Amino acid sequence: MEPFEGEARADLAIIGGGICGSSLALHAAEAGLNVVLLEAKTIGWGASGRNSGHLPAASKHTPQKMVEMYGAGRGERLNALIARGPAIVFDLAKRHEMSATAEPTGTLSAAHTPRALRALEEQAAFLAAHQFPVELLDRKAAAEAIGSDFYFGALLDRRGGAINPLAYVRGLARAARRAGAGVHEWSRATKLERDNKAWLVGTERGRLRAEAVALCTNAYTDALWPGLTQSIIPVRLQQYVTSPLPEPLRRKILPGRQAFTDSRRMIIGARMHKDGRFQFNGRGPGFGAEGDLAWREALGRMTEIWPELADAKQESAWTGWVAMNREKSWKVHNPAPGLYAALGCNGRGIVIATLIGQELARLLSGADAAEVALPLADLKPIPLHAVHRPIVRSIVGYYKLRDAVELKATARPRAGA
Ligand SMILES: Cc1cc2nc3c(=O)[nH]c(=O)nc-3n(C[C@H](O)[C@H](O)[C@H](O)COP(=O)(O)OP(=O)(O)OC[C@H]3O[C@@H](n4cnc5c(N)ncnc54)[C@H](O)[C@@H]3O)c2cc1C
After folding, report:
1. Which region holds residue 410: left if phi is over 0, alpha if psi is between -120 and 50, else beta?
2. Does ligand 1 lie within 6 Å of residue 21's CB atom?
3. Is 18 in the pocket of ligand 1 (CB under 6 A)?
4. How far is the centre of ligand 1, averaged over its atoms, from the C-alpha of 353 (Å)?
5. Which residue has the least CA distance to atom 35 on ligand 1?
6. In ligand 1, which atom is closest to the CA atom of 16?
């Protein structure tokens, strides 16, 4: 998609071509707004094209905690929207010819200790009471679904699944274009200033005048608007994919191909692709350079669960940045009239960034702010932001230690026992 050049006017300028910006471009263009999206590199170049592709029907918080955080009305509306989130993503994929990349196989969350199992039981009871298609799997059923007897049980949630995230974000951007949005790659916004009642967005080769601007840059946020980079901590995550596994392993490990996570603080995330490639997350240096990968360490954690993976070969690996904050929650800011910024994914964003795009489009096309599910938050710096790296390293070290102690102190169940 060609770079932005020359002078133009728009109702809405979107900065950042990830899932959030592309979803907003699509929904706003469908609502009749004149939209221009500017992406610094290529569509999906940020976290949206680099993630694990898991689609849980949940934020990082339990629905109960969401109500505590956002109040009964807004919290419940958000919960209801997120509960339908994977279905909304699958529907978008279907409507815009990306269905081949979407897999409504469900999600599996496994308990690494009896205590974690009790939390899953509570969650399962809450979700079942709301008529959601969830099932609590006992040790034996969990061992079959996971292909390992490492866990004490698991929650199967049939609402979620997985998607090829790069294909999805590119599909959203293509659909936005078809709906009339201007979508430009290699067009970094380098300047953002208020001019009378409009905004001026400058790029290397052009100038865009817009009524409203949405910054959808998440962990890849630069210094375009003051205070945004201090409101998040970007942390690097690793992803690994094996070459296709032999047929017996494909049938044994995650045979239902659900997106799999567990309950540790340093979470395990994995999924089996249709073609037998196995994808899992690493935990190399959180702030290291792109090349700092730790395949052996990640494979070590995988073989603890699935010893059969010992001979698996790394086929590809990459990293991407996630935006963390203290609340472990996305935030949408409105720091000046007509200016919005959405960031703070905390590692969960395919569904939620899609929904933020959808809801922000409703807000910008005239919906009553009180009816939109999005809570708007004040823009505040994270305390001690300037020294966040050693602090995060210490927290990660502590989490690893707690996980290790818990695993050591807990006798692993044997499925047949
Ligand atoms: C390794 C990894 C695994 C993950 N796994 C999952 C998962 O399984 N499930 C899940 O739900 N979430 C997951 N996430 C999180 C998810 O990927 C993000 O929440 C989501 O992609 C954020 O989308 P976004 O559009 O807000 O930001 P991004 O996709 O990061 O897009 C931001 C874009 O802004 C552009 N940009 C920045 N500055 C400018 C500028 N000045 N001008 C123009 N463009 C600019 C960047 O180039 C970038 O393309 C994962 C993330 C990572 C990194």
Report:
1. beta
2. yes
3. yes
4. 9
5. 16
6. 34
Task: Say if CB 106 and CB 159 are below 8 A apart.
Answer: yes
| Cβ(360) – ligand 1 distance below 6 Å | no
Q: How far is the CA of 218 from the centre of ligand 1 (A)?
A: 6
**Amino acid letter at 106?**
G
Query: 107-158+234-322+402-417, superfamily in CATH?
Result: D-Amino Acid Oxidase, subunit A, domain 2 (3.30.9.10)
Contact 14, 24 (CB under 8 A): yes
CATH label, 1-104+164-232+325-382, candidates 2.40.50.100, 3.50.50.60, 3.10.560.10, 3.90.1010.10:
3.50.50.60
Query: Is residue 147 in contact with ligand 1, taking CB distance under 6 Å?
Result: no
Identify the burial level of 97 via C-beta atoms within 10 angstroms of its C-beta, where 0-12 means exposed, 13-18 middle and 19 or more buried: exposed
* Ligand 1 pocket: which of 89, 217, 235 to mutate (most atoms within 8 A of CB): 217
Cβ burial, residue 336 (10 Å; 0-12/13-18/19+): middle
Over its length of 417 residues, how does the chain's per-residue pLDDT go in tens digits? Answer: 899 999 999 999 999 999 999 999 999 999 999 999 999 999 999 999 999 999 999 888 988 899 999 998 889 999 999 999 999 999 999 999 887 789 999 999 999 999 999 999 999 999 999 899 999 999 999 999 999 999 999 999 999 999 999 999 999 999 999 999 999 999 999 999 999 889 999 999 999 999 999 999 999 999 999 999 999 999 999 999 999 999 999 999 999 999 999 999 888 999 999 999 999 998 777 777 776 678 888 999 999 999 999 999 999 999 999 999 999 999 999 999 999 999 999 999 999 999 999 999 999 999 988 888 888 999 999 888 887 888 888 888 888 888 888 888 887 766 554
Is the distance from the beta carbon of residue 46 to the nearest atom of ligand 1 less than 6 Å? yes
Reference 84, options 56, 124, 52; nearest CA is 56
Ligand 1 in reach of 217 Cβ (< 6 A): yes
Residue written as tokens 């990660």? 396
CATH topology of 1-104+164-232+325-382 equal to that of 107-158+234-322+402-417? no
pTM of the model: 0.95
CA of 29 to the centre of ligand 1 (A): 21
